[in-house]
Specification:
This protein has one helix spanning 11-28; strands at 46-50, 56-59, 63-64, 72-73, 82-87, 94-99, 105-110, 120-123, 128-132. The protein contains 1 helix and 9 strands. The protein is of the alpha+beta class. It has a 6-stranded antiparallel sheet with strand order 3-4-8-7-6-5. The protein has a 3-stranded antiparallel sheet with strand order 2-1-9, with no helix packed on it. Helix content is 13%, strand content 29%. The chain has one domain (11-132): Peptide methionine sulfoxide reductase (Metal Binding Protein, Guanine Nucleotide Exchange Factor, Chain A).
C-alpha cells in the first residue's frame, strides 16, 4: 500500500476508524446484501468518495439504475482513482475494484454496462460517502 501519513497504519486503527460494517467491506472484501445499501437508489447530484480515505471516486452523472441492487456507475471520476485486480473467489473470475489511495475494497466491474463505456462498476454503498452538490443560490 502507498504510504499516506493521514491514513491508519494498522488494521486495529482501520477497525476503529471505520466501524464493523465498513471495516468488513473495505478491509476484508465483504459485500452488503443487494438492495440494502444507503446509496443504491440515491438520485441526488454529487460526488461519491471513498468511505475509507475520502478520495473522489465517482460522480452522480455516471450513476445509473442497473437493477443489480448496488450503486452502479459506468465510469470512475478519474481512472487513476481505481485499482483493478483479478478476483477468482466464489468459483468465478471477476475484476475487483479498490480505491487506489487506501486499497479499500469497493466492489467489482463488469462488461455489461451502458455506453459510452459499456462498463458497470457495481459498488457497495458502505464503501462510499456521498457529498451532494451545492444547490443553486446556496453559499459555498
Amino acid at each position: 500500500m502507498t504510504e499516506h501519513s493521514d491514513l491508519p497504519q494498522t488494521e486495529a486503527q482501520w477497525r476503529e476508524k471505520l466501524g464493523p460494517t465498513r471495516y468488513h467491506i473495505l478491509r476484508e472484501g465483504g459485500t452488503e446484501r443487494a438492495f440494502t445499501g444507503e446509496y443504491e437508489s440515491n438520485k441526488a447530484a454529487g460526488d461519491y468518495l471513498c468511505g475509507g480515505c475520502g478520495a473522489p471516486l465517482f460522480h452522480s452523472s455516471t450513476k445509473y439504475n442497473s437493477g443489480s441492487g448496488w450503486p452502479s456507475f459506468y465510469a470512475p471520476e478519474d481512472a487513476s482513482a481505481i485499482a483493478e485486480l483479478r478476483d477468482m473467489s466464489h468459483g468465478m473470475v471477476r475484476v475487483e475494484v479498490r480505491c487506489a489511495r487506501c486499497e479499500g475494497h469497493l466492489g467489482h466491474v463488469f462488461p455489461d454496462g451502458p455506453q459510452p463505456t459499456g462498463l458497470r462498476y457495481c459498488i457497495n454503498s458502505a464503501s462510499l460517502n456521498f457529498v451532494p452538490e451545492d444547490l443553486p443560490g446556496e453559499d459555498a
